[in-house]
Amino acid sequence: MKILMTAFDPFGGDEINPALEAVKHVDVSGLGAEVIKLEVPTVFGKSIEKVAEAMRRERPDVVVAVGQAGGRFDITPERVAINMDDARIEDNEGNQPIDQPIFADGAPAYFATLPIKAMVKSIQDIGLPASVSNTAGTFVCNHIMYGILYTIAREMPDVRGGFIHVPFIPEQVVARRDMPSMAMEDISRALRAALEAIIANEEDLELVGGAEH
Ligand code: PCA
To answer: Can you identify the CATH homologous superfamily of domain 2-200?
Structure first.
C-alpha cells in the first residue's frame, strides 16, 4: 500500500505548523506501507494543484492530509469537506475568498473515505485524545480536503482520502492564554496510529462517535 501524507506550512502569523512538524516526525517504519510525505502551501488553489499533481505522479492508494486546528483539544479526523471557500483570514499569498465554490462542477460536499471511527479508536487505544470532527471549517484545510476528494471522484475512484486536524503544540500557546496544546511527539504518535487504522480497515468500524452539536 502506498500512502501520500501531506501537511501545511505555517500560516496566520505562526512560525510553525504543528501538522508539518508532526508529519515530518511520524515513524513510518514497520507499517507495511510506503508513506510519501509532502509539504503543501497554505494557499487557496496552489495547495490543491500541488497535491493533485502528486496524486497523479505517485498513484497512491490513500491520501491523508494534515493541518492545524488551533483551539481544538484532540486529534480530529474530519468526516466531510464542503464546496465552499470562506476565509476569515488571508492565506499565505494574501487571498481571502468569501463564499466562493471550490469547484463549480463539484458536489456540494464529499465524505472522507478513510475509516474515521477506526482512526479515532486507534489513537485512543494508545492513550491520546481523539474524536470525529464534522466540520473542517471553510479555510485552506477544508479546501484541500475537498480538492483531494474531488480529484479522487473524477480521476481515481479506487483511492481513499481524508483529512486530520491537530491541535497547537505547547510552544505556540505560551503567548496564547488558556489555549489547549498537545506535544508534537504525541501528535506524531497519534498520526502513526491513524495510519495503522487506515492500513488495517478498508471499511470503517461501526462505533459510537457522533456529536449532538
Ligand atoms: N490549518 C488551516 C490551514 C492550514 C492549516 O494547517 C485550516 O484549518 O484551514
So the answer is: Peptidase C15, pyroglutamyl peptidase I-like (3.40.630.20)
Domain boundaries, the chain: 2-200
How many Cβ atoms from other residues are within 10 Å of residue 121's Cβ? 17
Residue 141 designated active-site: yes
The two beta strands, 2-8 and 62-68, are: parallel
Cα(158) to ligand 1 centroid in Å equals: 26
pLDDT tens-digit readout, 89-110: 999 999 999 999 999 999 999 9
The Cα–Cα gap between 209 and 86 comes to 27
Question: Using a 6 Å CB cutoff, which residues line ligand 1?
Answer: 8, 11, 17, 19, 42, 67-69, 137, 139-141
Report the predicted TM-score, pTM, of the whole model to 2 decimal places: 0.98
Average pLDDT, stretch 170-185? 97
User: What pLDDT is attached to residue 73?
Assistant: 98
Q: 9 C-alpha vs ligand 1 centroid, how far in Å?
A: 9
